Amino acid sequence: MLLSIDWILFLEKLILIAIVIFASLGIALYTTFAERKVAAALQDRPGPNRAGPFGLFQPFADGLKLIMKEEIIPNTSNKILFILGPFLAMTAALMTSAVIPWSSDVHLFGRVIPLQIADVNIGILYIFAVVSLGVYGIMIGGWASNNKFSLMAALRGASQAISYELAMGLSLIALLMTTGTLQLGEIVKQQMAPGHWWNIVYQPLGFLIFLICAFAECNRTPFDLAEAENELNFGYHQEYSSMKLGFYLFSEYVNMFISSVVMATLYFGGYDVPFLNESLLSPNVAAIVGIIALLIKVVIFIFFFMWVRWTIPRFRYDQLMNLGWKSLVPLALFNMIITGLFILWFGK
């Protein structure tokens, strides 16, 4: 029996997927520029300012340089896995955005179009599953390079991800106890409801744990042990060149962007604007305002990622493991128990 397909809905989803992918790549591209400017401001220097007005064409110059570089594959590497690693890392980074509600519905040509690719009822579990796949991109790249430093860096990255995903998951359990749902769209709507606050008010400790774990998941300083240049030369992508190296570098910035969106969605109301009654606006205007509000929150988080990178030195590896297992995991368990007791005594 043939299934009937709503081709208009299918086309809408394809267009939304294309917009989200290109927007994520574009934001990641200019995040590299923003990071260099933030680092320059913190170090009292101008930063990139030659390519185009105010240096705005610098990301395109960097991308063109990577494309034009010679493609080198080591003779002793596993060539298939060597090529697969960076593609897997980039694909996993982009797939995470599939369940994120970017704003309220828009009304076009008599149709109601949700600005969310897939509103699945296990949205948070989906994000965890896809984020876990990103570790394979690091592991495959490090192992396939047949380089001892790359392999050591990949092992560091994998053990770091396993350690901090546990604390991140425990912090989210407390959030799920208060919201009662895994749907990201429903979590945002609960925070927008009259008489409700953003989840950061109910779960400040859970957010702090999630934020620290997000740094570790994105391999950002002070948790960039998989790319510790002073110890491991260049990290797990040491043998990579041209756009394969570019995919690894850009996937880190895509992960940082998506992590910021997830934190804004879970703890800061997503596309909600404080003290604004969206029902007074037309649906399309409310959707545009929601997108702008979400992006403003994301920009603040991205700036915080950069600020931390250029002000705090990286941990030693033993400090990294001790923080994850001896501090964050017990704190996340404590937060979960306190949340459960609070709900038991006072209700949601």
UniProtKB/TrEMBL annotation:
Reactions listed under catalytic activity: a quinone + NADH + 5 H(+)(in) = a quinol + NAD(+) + 4 H(+)(out)
This protein's record includes keyword Membrane: yes
One cellular component term from this protein's GO annotations in UniProt: plasma membrane
Top EC class for this record: translocase
Keyword annotations of the record: Cell membrane, Membrane, NAD, Quinone, Translocase, Transmembrane, Transmembrane helix, Ubiquinone
Subcellular location: Cell membrane; Membrane
GO terms of molecular function: NADH dehydrogenase activity; oxidoreductase activity, acting on NAD(P)H, quinone or similar compound as acceptor; quinone binding
EC number(s) stated in the UniProt entry for this protein: 7.1.1.-
InterPro entries documented for this protein: NADH_UbQ_OxRdtase_su1/FPO, NADH_UbQ_OxRdtase_su1_CS
UniProt cross-references to Pfam families, sorted A to Z: NADHdh (PF00146)
Membrane topology note: Multi-pass membrane protein
Protein's GO biological process: aerobic respiration
Keyword NAD: yes
Transmembrane segments: 7-31, 80-102, 122-145, 166-185, 197-216, 245-268, 288-308, 328-347
Subunit organization: NDH-1 is composed of 14 different subunits. Subunits NuoA, H, J, K, L, M, N constitute the membrane sector of the complex.
NCBIfam families the UniProt entry points to: PRK06076.1-2
Function: NDH-1 shuttles electrons from NADH, via FMN and iron-sulfur (Fe-S) centers, to quinones in the respiratory chain. The immediate electron acceptor for the enzyme in this species is believed to be ubiquinone. Couples the redox reaction to proton translocation (for every two electrons transferred, four hydrogen ions are translocated across the cytoplasmic membrane), and thus conserves the redox energy in a proton gradient. This subunit may bind ubiquinone.
Family to which the UniProt record says this protein belongs: Belongs to the complex I subunit 1 family.
Protein name per its UniProtKB record: NADH-quinone oxidoreductase subunit H
Source organism per UniProt: Hydrotalea sandarakina
